[in-house]
Amino acid sequence: MKGMMMHRPLKIADILEFAAEVHGEAEVISARHEGDVHRAGLRAIRDRVCRLAHALRARGVGEGERIATLAFNGHRHLECYYAISGIGAVCHTINPRLPADQMRYIIDHAGDTHIFVDAPLVPLLEPLLPTLARPLTVVVMTDRAHMPDTPLDGVICYEELLDGEPTRFDWPDYPEETAAGLCYTSGTTGAPKGALYSHRSTVLHALFVSSALPTVLQPGRKVLPVVPLFHVNAWGLPYVAPLAGASLVFPGAKLDGKSLFDLMDAEGVYSAWGVPTVWLGLLAEIAARGRLPEGFGHVLVGGSAAPRSMIAAFEEMGVTVFHAWGMTEMSPIGTVGALPPSVRAGPPEARLQKQSIQGRRVFGVEFKINGENGERLPHDGVSQGELHVRGNAVISGYHANPEATEAAIDAEGWFGTGDIATIDPDGYLSITDRAKDLIKSGGEWISSLDVENLAISHPKVRNCACIAVADDKWGERPLLVVVPEGDDAPDSDEILDLLATKFARWQLPDEVVTVDALPLTATGKVSKLTLRKQFAAQRAAEGGRTP
C-alpha cells in the first residue's frame, strides 16, 4: 500500500525562492576583484538570478547543456549556481588552479558551451580556447568599466548580459533526478573524473548538512566559505546557508591570513569553513594581532586531517572546532564532528581526541568497512579497512566514464572511498590514512597521518608531510618533510625525540628534511604525490641511495 501524499520534485531553485521569502534579511557579502565589498539581501540575489536565467534562455541554453564557471567566491558565481541549474542546465565549476592540460580535458569531456569567468582569470583562457575541441562563449563576470583587454573574440560582459531582463522567472518543472552540477576530481591519479550531481541529491545534501549543524547555521549568523565555489559546491554552503537563513561572506581570491582576518573582523563572521593550510595562516595572524576577529566562534575543518595542535589552539581561544570529512563524490560532506554534550563537558583530553577524528555520519550517509578480501569488518573501533559509502547524495558512477565507475562501485553498489578507516560502536569515524599514502615497511603498515599529527604539535613546526620512500631492505621507509615555524628550524633529533614518545623505533622516519613550503594540490591540500616524485627523483640523481 502506498501513502496518499503529493509528490513534488526537489529543485535547487526552490531553495532560493524559499530563502528570499522566509530569510530575506540574510545577506550575501562579497569581497570583489573590483576592489569593493558588495552586499545584497537574498531577495536582491534572487532577482539577479532570475535576470541571468532569462539571459541564458535568450541565448538558447537548453536543458542538460553544460555551462562552465571559472571564478572565485563571490555573488556573481553564486548567481550562476542557481540560474544555470534553475533552467535545467548543468553548472560545471572549474578549478582555476588546475594545470592547463587538465582544464582542457575537463572542458572537452564535459562538452561545455559557455564559460563564466572572473576578470582576473581571463588570461588563463586566452591560450586555452584555441586548443579546445569546440568553440566556447566567454562571459566575463564584471561590469563594463572593469572589462579586461583580451584578444578573445565575442567576449560578453556579465552585467550587460543581465541588463533589462525581468526579475521574476517561472522555473520549469523537470524530474528531480535531472543533472544540476558537475565537478571533476583533481586528477592526482589518472585523468580527472566527473561527479554529476542532481537536483534531488543537492537539495537532500543541503537538508542533511543543515540538520547536522543547527547551532552554526541559523538566522543572524554569518558564515565564510574559504572552501571554494569552484570545487565541490563549497561544501554545500551555497545551498545550506540560504536554506537555514545564514548570511554568506565571500572572500574572493585573497585567502592569506591578514585578508581573511580583516574581512572576518569587519563583517562579524561567526563560522569559517576551509582546509587546514588556510587556518595555519589565520592562526599566525591571530597570534600577531593578539586577538580573534570580532564575532568569530566556530571553524569547520575539512579537506584533509586537521592537526590536533591546530584544534587545541582554536579551542583554547574559545573557538569551537568541528572536523568534517567527505569527498567530491559525496556532494561532499559525509561526517561532522559536532560533539554531544556528554563529550564536550567531559575531560579536555577525551574531548580533544574526539575532535581530532572525523566525527559521525550525517543523516542520509551509510558506512561500511571492507577488509583486504572484500569482507565486511565490524564497527568496533579497532578493525581497519577501506571505507565504503552509500546514500542519496553519493555518486552511482562517474560522468561518461564506465571504466572508472566499474573500479569505484562494488558488487553491492557501495562507493569505495580509498580511505583506510575504523568506526567505533558509537559511530565515530577515524580516517587512519589514504590507501595510497600508507607506508608499508617490512610488511607492517605505518600511518603517515599519525606521524604528521604528532610532528606538527612541535612548536617549531608550521606544517609537515610524511611520505614513503623506496628502501632496498624494507620496501618503504617513512620520510618526514617539515616546514619550520619562523627562522628557528628544529633539528632532526628534536622531532624524532617527540615522535619516539608515541611510536615504536621502526615506525620513526629515517630522515627529517626541512623545506620552505610544501607543494599543494589544486584544492589546497598537501600534494604527497608531488613530494614522492620529488624525493624519488632526488634519490635517483644521488645514485639510488636509501636513508
Description of the molecule:
It is a single chain. The protein has 547 residues and is an alpha/beta fold. Helix content is 30%, strand content 24%. It is built from 17 helices and 26 strands. The strands form 4 sheets. It has a 14-stranded mixed β-sheet with strand order 2-1-11-10-12-13-14-15-16-21-20-19-17-18, with helices on both faces. Strands 7-6-5-3-4-8-9 form a 7-stranded mixed β-sheet, sandwiched between helices. α1 packs antiparallel against α2, α1 runs parallel beside α8 (237-244) and α7 crosses α8 (237-244). The radius of gyration is 24 Å and the shape is globular. The mean pLDDT is 94.
Helix count equals 17
How much beta, percentage-wise? 15-25%
Report Rg: 24 Å
Q: Structural class from helices and strands?
A: alpha/beta
Q: Separation of termini?
A: 69 Å
Q: Tell me the helix content.
A: 25-40%
Main sheet properties = 14 strands, mixed
Average pLDDT confidence is: 94
Instruction: Give me the count of strands.
Output: 26
Shape: globular
Q: Going across the major beta sheet, what is the strand order?
A: 2-1-11-10-12-13-14-15-16-21-20-19-17-18
**Uncertain residue segments:** none
